[in-house]
């Protein structure tokens, strides 16, 4: 039986480009530290989904801390190097991504109650936490979490540091102005021949 970066043997990659599953039942009370790196197949799939030239490297580290209410607080960061195309020169360029991760996962049955607490916090002046993500089938997908953070860090308008957008300015044509057609009609009515004839 083969094992890929999903953490589960022969797991399919058809839904998410990078899957690394952690069984919450195996997270100790003291917490768990995990570091993951995307293999070539995962990097290629991420590049296709994000419409990038390539994902050269992708690495993430996480600290998973269980809470007494059955939820899990996950912090960490994803670091990646991606290949893009400069929007000014169309040259290939590479960019670094370094995105923090801070999210809570909870059993699906707790999510409505926890979401209500988030809604109540909206009315206060304090910073509102994001609603928790659901734990699906007893697993948390660290690969998907890292992928989402990586995609958030992508510059949608990448450009080389020395690239300058220069708009070409053409000299205005005296015959091409808003009232040119009106002047031509007036000249015709007065019996004048149009210029250039």
From TrEMBL:
Source organism of this protein record: Bradyrhizobium uaiense
Domain of life according to the entry: Bacteria
Database matches in InterPro entries: YceD (IPR003772)
Protein name: DUF177 domain-containing protein
Any single Pfam family the record assigns to this protein: YceD
């Amino acid at each position: 039986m083969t094992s890929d970066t999903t953490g589960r043997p022969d797991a399919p990659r058809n839904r998410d480009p990078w899957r690394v599953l952690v069984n919450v039942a195996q997270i100790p009370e003291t917490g768990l530290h995990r570091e993951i790196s995307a293999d070539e197949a995962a990097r290629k799939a991420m590049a296709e989904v994000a419409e990038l030239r390539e994902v050269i490297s992708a690495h993430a580290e996480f600290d998973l801390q269980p809470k007494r209410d059955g939820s899990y607080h996950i912090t960490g960061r994803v670091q990646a190097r991606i290949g893009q195309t400069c929007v000014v020169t169309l040259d290939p360029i590479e960019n670094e991504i370094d995105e923090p991760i801070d999210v809570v996962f909870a059993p699906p049955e707790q999510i409505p109650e926890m979401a209500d607490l988030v809604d109540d916090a909206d009315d206060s002046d304090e910073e509102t936490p994001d609603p928790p993500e659901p734990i699906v089938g007893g697993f948390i997908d660290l690969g998907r979490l890292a992928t989402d953070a990586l995609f958030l860090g992508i510059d949608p308008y990448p450009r080389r540091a020395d690239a300058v957008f220069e708009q070409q300015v053409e000299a205005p044509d005296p015959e091409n102005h808003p009232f040119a057609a009106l002047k031509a009609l007036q000249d015709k009515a007065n019996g004048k021949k149009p210029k250039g004839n």
